[in-house]
Recover the amino acids of this structure.
């Protein structure tokens, strides 16, 4: 243990003396302080903090990732390339201890840097929250003072109506801003998406329906084979997905949810984003609509008041309103209504959106599948969720250190850095290949090239660590809960099953590496 700690300590000292490391350290501290002070939001209350969190944590993660790859390769390769490794190997210290000590020293140093940078960013985020809260409280205080002056007759009679409207607007905006900043950013909410079902089976059913309708009208669909059939089925699939999220003027669109918590009595939030006219439209237009939420009412038996006779669905319709397309909206719903009706029954519920535009008087409303309305339930505080994000980032740095240590165990420094970067990009590329093919192609009608690409992507995905899965700035800034189950999955499947074999192979290669030929005669 003494030898291990001594080597880890020497590794930290050697890293600190490196000019590259000092440059990256200065860049890290600069980004941790300057970005939160200079970055501007998108004009919204939540945008101020969301962009601060996403950009700051993302850039810090990138700098630390670059630094840990460089320093790991440097510390493992420099001693051999500079003909100094014999100074360690002649001592009664096994190569296993040398390898582990260097690994621990590099990782510990970056863990400390991650903690420092994360603490600075957390402090700026809390300070930004304090600034926004005080600003909105000041607006409320000013509005109440104006209202008091109005009651005392200190405002001219002709300005009374205008002043009342201004006061009401300020109060509403201030209250909404205070609610939004706490409910959408400074929180950790579990997200539930609607059930889509087996889309491939639905494509088959839709194709059979079209064939049956064509036969009933005396028409015959052309025989399609190979690539033409695949493209046709892709078109049917995209049309089916688009139709699932379309609410025509005077129509509605519904979603079913499962896996929700039982006996929920808190406040749930419905978060959604829709598009007007076209599912990919970037235009922001006003649409008139209303939401319907299905609650469940227990009906007790008249003869036995302790026995539930049946459950009835009681729809609750939200007040119709004008909504702007192309941006995220959110509203709160109680877990238990005033009449005792439950929002979730057996872990299920349903939502519907009514497009109240008169037919022929306006466009359809579209909800993309990836941005379908989601039910969000608060499970943890912002501090708790932030700590989880830092922990997952630390796991990502650990995985990067494993990859770089493996490559530098038997390669020169430039080659080891190149192999480490290639490993990361291959992991990113393999996931992109699989996801892009799955989104546009049914499994049984894929072309040969798609099948080869999908198989290659799956093989690479099963062998390589997807480093991008460890950096979750977007989840943190959106107030979405970073699940412990997701963290356990990353640790088990990526660090243990994929990273540990790399370390064992790296240790074997390092242990059997011929170092005598590299020593000065």
């Amino acid at each position: 243990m003494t030898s291990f700690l001594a080597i880890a300590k020497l590794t930290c000292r050697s890293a600190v003396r490196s000019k590259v490391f000092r440059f990256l350290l200065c860049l890290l501290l600069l980004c941790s302080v300057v970005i939160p002070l200079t970055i501007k939001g998108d004009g919204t209350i939540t945008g101020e903090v969301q962009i601060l969190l996403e950009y700051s944590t993302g850039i810090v993660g990138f700098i630390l990732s670059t630094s840990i790859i460089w320093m790991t390769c440097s510390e493992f390769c420099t001693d051999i390339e500079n003909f100094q490794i014999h100074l360690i190997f002649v001592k009664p210290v096994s190569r296993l201890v040398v390898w582990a000590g260097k690994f621990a020293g590099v990782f510990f140093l970056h863990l400390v840097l991650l903690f420092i940078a994360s603490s600075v960013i957390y402090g700026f985020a809390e300070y930004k929250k304090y600034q926004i809260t005080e600003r909105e409280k000041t607006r409320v205080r000013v509005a109440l003072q104006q209202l008091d002056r109005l009651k005392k007759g200190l405002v001219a009679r002709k300005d009374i109506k205008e002043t009342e409207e201004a006061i009401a607007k300020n109060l509403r905006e201030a209250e909404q801003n205070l609610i939004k900043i706490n409910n959408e950013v400074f929180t950790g909410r579990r997200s539930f998406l609607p059930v889509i079902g087996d889309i491939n089976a639905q494509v088959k059913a839709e194709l059979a329906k079209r064939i049956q309708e064509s036969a009933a009208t005396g028409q015959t669909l052309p025989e399609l084979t190979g690539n033409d059939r695949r493209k046709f089925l892709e078109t049917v699939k995209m049309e089916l997905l688009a139709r699932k999220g379309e609410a025509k003027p005077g129509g509605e669109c519904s979603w079913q949810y499962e896996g929700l918590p039982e006996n929920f009595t808190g406040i749930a939030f419905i978060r959604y984003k829709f598009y007007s006219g076209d599912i990919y439209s970037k235009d922001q237009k006003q649409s008139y609509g209303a939401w319907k939420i299905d609650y469940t009412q227990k009906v007790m038996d008249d003869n036995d008041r302790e026995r539930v006779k049946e459950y009835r669905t009681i729809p609750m319709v939200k007040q119709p309103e004008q909504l702007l397309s192309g941006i995220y909206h959110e509203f709160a719903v109680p877990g238990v209504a005033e009449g005792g009706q439950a929002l979730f029954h057996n872990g299920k519920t349903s939502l519907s959106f009514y497009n109240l535009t008169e037919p022929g008087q306006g466009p359809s409303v579209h909800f993309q599948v990836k941005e379908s309305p989601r039910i969000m339930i608060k499970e943890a505080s912002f501090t708790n969720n932030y700590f989880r994000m830092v922990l997952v980032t630390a796991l990502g740095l650990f995985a990067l250190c494993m990859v770089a240590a493996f490559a530098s165990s038997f390669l020169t420094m430039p080659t080891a850095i190149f192999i480490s970067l290639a490993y990361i990009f291959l992991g990113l590329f393999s996931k992109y290949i699989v996801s892009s093919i799955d989104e546009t192609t049914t499994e049984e009608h894929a072309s040969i090239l798609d099948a080869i690409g999908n198989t290659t992507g799956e093989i690479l995905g099963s062998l390589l660590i997807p480093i991008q899965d460890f950096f979750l700035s977007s989840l943190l800034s959106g107030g979405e809960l970073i699940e412990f189950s997701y963290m356990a999955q990353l640790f088990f499947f990526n660090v243990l099953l994929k990273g540990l074999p790399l370390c064992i192979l790296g240790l074997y290669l390092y242990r059997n590496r011929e170092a005598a030929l590299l020593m000065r005669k």
The mean pLDDT is 81. The CA atoms of residues 265 and 483 lie 21 Å apart. The two ends are 32 Å apart (CA to CA).
